[in-house]
Amino acid sequence: MTTATLLAGSLVLATSCATSPPAARPGPQAPVEHTVTPVTTAPTKAPEPVKPTGDAINVHKVRWTKAASVARGKQVRLTWWSGVEPCTVLDRVKVKETAKKVTITLYEGTSPKAKNVSCIMLALEKTTTVKLKHPLAKRKLVDGAKP
């Protein structure tokens, strides 16, 4: 065998026994486009009916989002966004009636049963119905939690 043949054979052997070649580096890629479709539909679940507990702690006013006169104006159904029980409960509802307007204020807080409970941050639509002393008629309905 000649030196050239021996050298060529060693070179072939050395390159074939070596570790695999490094992976090819990817070339520049086209930017990936993401389409975000906003959710524009209303929640499919009806608001959860709740009643005041009267024993909540850390009570504060909460704004309601909808009000509807029901029972021929003798009641008002209020709807608002709230948290999950027992972390967020309706404590009480204050109603102040005058000849020209009806002011309704919702108060929420935390149930005393919420000790050692993990509270998840989830919004729920809740509803409660309030009885009036006199039918609503043409009186203005006011949210008592609004400044």
Question: First CA to last CA: what distance?
Answer: 101 Å
The average pLDDT value, as a whole number, equals 83
How many DSSP-defined strands? 8
Side by side, the strands of the main sheet go 1-7-4-3
How would you portray this structure in words?
The chain has 147 residues and is mainly beta. It has a domain at 48-143. It contains one helix and eight strands. The strands form two sheets. The protein has a four-stranded mixed beta sheet with strand order 1-7-4-3, with no helix packed on it. Strand 5 and strand 6 (101-110) form a beta hairpin. The chain is globular, with a radius of gyration of 34 Å. It starts with a helix and ends with a strand.
Short description:
With 147 residues, the protein is mainly beta. The chain has one helix spanning 3-17; strands at residues 48-49, 57-62, 66-70, 75-82, 89-97, 101-110, 124-131, 140-143.
